[in-house]
């Protein structure tokens, strides 16, 4: 008898239903593959929304975590520990910035960015007290806190969670004229995803990110790039901004930074920006803890080799070529960069959810978003044959 149905029921009984998972109960994993409680294997083409860029249980990361577990796990930032300096120095170097501020979840990195930008606005730019505004994009996804959902345009994420935090202006994504119009003398930051992941891997028009950079520089406004999902190798470069030749004032990082083991996020910026924070003004008990720093330092070292960015760029071409061949055969559009793709399924055929369920039955895990879109974001350790396998299974689902 299969164990999955009972395990699914068990998992639902005492939990808030804030997710609608596929009916699969995973019990072990390695590399790009996971195994469920019934021993069935699946190719993981979601990779924890890019938190597993290096695959499940990457040997170097696991060995580092084990070693650190045997030495020191938590101190709080009331004391300094011996894993902190290396992590901060090496991550700052990877980002080309002076300083980093470690937190845990992506949403905390975004909150940190918002707070730092406001303080910078008041103390450095000279914005009158309480007047700062931040410009964001329609279709954004930056997390789930009350402030962040205040500037979401997704009614599921936002409705009934008010009163909302003021101080945000929303403009259409990809529209430079609208952005220029929205920026005024009280604007402290423009906060954007260089590619909108949750929205369906939406790549902005060419020239948009350099245009944002130019507008921000001209108006003395911080460009904050939320690279929590797009960064750390996903698009074929360390940062998605890099592919447009753009350097933001602040990077927001998360997900893959924790190596798929621990939640680690960070804000990276130069001293004139992050330097506005003084003791007591921001922090987190777990942010920058020894286990997190040990694992994340190894993540930074893996990225410093360039191997994963290279794999993502090369295998991404193969993935996108395979997916483009399905346009007109069940797909209406394919977007993305590197090993990251948003696919729009012909809604006359099936919903994104049904497509994901059928892919699951064929041993491939992916996640739908916004009705008829599927996101593919396999671990960057996936092989060429496995990429072909995923595309073949999708072709079979669309042809069924
Ligand atoms: C671009 C982006 N920013 C922020 C977040 C929030 O990260 P977390 O879920 O770790 O809070 C996400 C999560 O999907 C994201 O994709």
Helical stretch count? 14
Oligomeric description of these chains: single chain
The coarse overall form would be globular
CATH architecture of the largest domain: 3-Layer(aba) Sandwich
Number of structural units classed as domains: 2
- Strand percentage: 15-25%
Largest sheet: 7 strands, mixed
From the N-terminal CA to the C-terminal CA, the straight-line distance is: 27 Å
Unique bound compounds: pyridoxal-5'-phosphate
- Helix proportion range: 25-40%
CATH homology-level superfamily of the largest domain: Type I PLP-dependent aspartate aminotransferase-like (Major domain)
Secondary structure class reads alpha/beta
Q: Segments where pLDDT lies below 50 for 5+ residues?
A: none
Rg over CA atoms, rounded to whole Å, is 21 Å
- Summed over residues and divided by their number, the pLDDT gives a mean of 98
Strand order of the largest sheet: 4-10-9-8-7-5-6
Order of helices and strands: HEEEHHHEHEHHEHEHEEEHHHEEHEEEH
Number of DSSP E strands: 15
What is CATH's topology name of the largest domain?
Aspartate Aminotransferase, domain 2
- Tell me, what is the CATH class of the largest domain? Alpha Beta
């Amino acid at each position: 008898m299969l164990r999955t149905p009972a395990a699914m029921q068990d998992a639902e009984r005492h939990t808030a239903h804030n997710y609608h998972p596929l009916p699969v109960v995973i019990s072990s994993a390695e590399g790009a593959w996971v195994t469920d409680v019934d021993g069935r294997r699946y190719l993981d083409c979601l990779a924890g929304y890019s938190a597993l860029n290096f695959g499940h249980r990457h040997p170097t990361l696991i060995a580092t975590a084990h070693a650190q577990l045997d030495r020191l796990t938590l101190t709080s930032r009331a004391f300094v520990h011996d894993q902190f300096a290396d992590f901060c120095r090496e991550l700052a170097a990877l980002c080309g910035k002076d300083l980093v501020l470690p937190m845990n979840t992506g949403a905390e990195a975004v909150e940190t960015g918002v707070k730092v930008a406001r303080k910078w606005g008041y103390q450095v730019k000279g914005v009158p007290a309480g007047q700062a505004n931040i410009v964001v994009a329609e279709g954004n996804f930056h997390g789930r806190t009350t402030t962040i959902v205040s500037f979401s345009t997704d009614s599921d994420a936002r409705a009934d969670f008010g009163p909302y935090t003021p101080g945000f202006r929303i403009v259409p994504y990809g529209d430079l004229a609208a952005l220029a119009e929205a920026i005024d003398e009280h604007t402290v930051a423009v906060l954007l995803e260089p590619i909108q992941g949750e929205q369906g891997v939406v790549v902005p028009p060419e020239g948009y990110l350099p245009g944002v950079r130019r507008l921000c520089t001209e108006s003395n406004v911080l460009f904050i790039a939320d690279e929590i999902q797009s960064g750390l190798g996903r698009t074929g470069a360390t940062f998605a901004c890099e592919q447009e030749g753009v350097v933001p004032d602040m990077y927001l990082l998360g997900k893959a930074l924790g190596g798929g083991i621990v939640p680690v996020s960070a804000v990276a910026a130069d001293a004139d920006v992050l330097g506005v924070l003084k003791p007591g003004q921001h922090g987190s008990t777990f942010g920058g803890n020894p286990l997190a720093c040990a694992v994340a330092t190894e993540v930074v070292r893996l990225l410093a080799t360039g191997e994963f960015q290279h794999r993502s760029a090369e295998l991404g071409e193969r993935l996108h070529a395979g997916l483009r061949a399905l346009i007109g055969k069940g797909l209406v559009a394919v977007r993305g960069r590197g090993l990251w793709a948003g696919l729009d399924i012909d809604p006359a055929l099936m919903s994104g959810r049904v497509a994901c369920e059928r892919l699951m039955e064929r041993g491939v895990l992916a996640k739908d978003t916004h009705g008829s879109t599927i996101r593919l974001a396999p671990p960057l350790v996936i092989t060429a044959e496995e990429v072909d396998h995923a595309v073949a299974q999708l072709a079979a689902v669309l042809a069924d």
